[in-house]
Design goal:
Elements: E1 8-12, H1 17-28, E2 32-36, H2 40-50, E3 53-54, H3 62-76, E4 81-84, H4 98-126, E5 129-134, H5 147-167, E6 172-177, H6 185-188, H7 191-197, H8 205-218, E7 222-223, H9 228-238, H10 240-255
Helix pairs in contact: 1-8, 3-4, 4-5, 7-10, 9-10
């Protein structure tokens, strides 16, 4: 039997891409699903097509995530699984604008903090709950061409790790989804950096959703649709200077 059958599930950033694929898979596996996205029209179409309930809005701001949690509880009765999937990717390094840095941290990190702040009291009281953070392989490695994305996704991994270590013994399962290249609009927007580092080996969103479904059954922390990412993480840990040298070589290819 599916671990999400009859569960109340929320997926943010679900109008398309990875979020839609996860939501569709959760519905297929018997969950009752609320989907959220800033794009209300596209979200409504997605919800109708996959059999979910749409709650449009901002899943990052304090007011927005509060409204989403309240609406989800109103529809589902209780939230059992929260997919913190909404994300943004902006270009640049230190020269990226203050607005781009702030947006990256708000959506890719603080949305997770604010959601968990609201969800944890109920989960800890009943001794069960699941928080799945979409943090990207960039959170374990990096995304050349985007310091805000790299830094914010590292923070997302760090926060998910902290949640797991702090609450695992109290029935809260925390997992971290770290895909590499996925054939979504976000990949298209990465330009030459994505072309060189992500396009080869990119997988469809449905592959990510299948990996997520398997991971829900065994509670693994790192959910890796690209198994090679684990090897890259090990290589980085074993010889960080060599690994960074390899990344710099890729950077020179991008610039060339």
């Amino acid at each position: 039997m599916s671990v999400v059958r009859d569960a109340g599930v929320v997926v943010t950033g679900a109008a398309g891409g990875i979020g839609r694929a996860i939501a569709e898979r959760m519905v297929a596996d018997g969950a009752r699903v609320v989907v959220n996205d800033l794009d209300a029209d596209r979200l409504a179409a997605t919800a109708a097509e996959i059999g979910a309930h749409a709650v449009p809005g901002d899943a990052a701001s304090e007011a927005g995530v509060t409204a989403l949690v309240e609406a989800a509880r109103g529809h589902l009765g209780a939230v059992d699984v929260w997919f913190a999937n909404a994300g943004v990717a902006t270009d640049g390094g230190p020269e990226a604008s203050e607005d781009d840095w702030a947006l990256s941290l708000e959506v890719n990190v603080m949305a997770h903090v604010r959601a968990s702040r609201l969800l944890l009291p109920d989960w800890l009281e009943r001794g069960s709950g699941r928080f799945v953070s979409t943090a990207s392989a960039a959170g374990l490695l990096m995304m050349l061409g985007s310091a805000p994305y790299t830094v914010s996704k590292h923070a997302a991994v760090g926060f998910a790790s902290w949640l797991r270590a702090t609450y695992a013994h109290r029935g809260v399962v925390v997992q971290c989804l770290c895909p590499q290249g996925v054939t979504t609009d976000m990949l298209t927007a990465t330009g030459r950096a994505g072309e060189i580092t992500l396009v080869e080996g990119a997988v469809a969103p449905s592959v990510v959703a299948d990996t997520v479904a398997a991971a829900l059954a065994d509670d693994r922390f790192l959910v890796l649709p690209h198994p090679e990412v684990e090897q890259y993480v090990q290589a980085r840990a074993a010889d960080t200077d060599r690994w960074l040298g390899g990344m710099n070589k890729l950077q020179r290819r991008i610039e060339g």
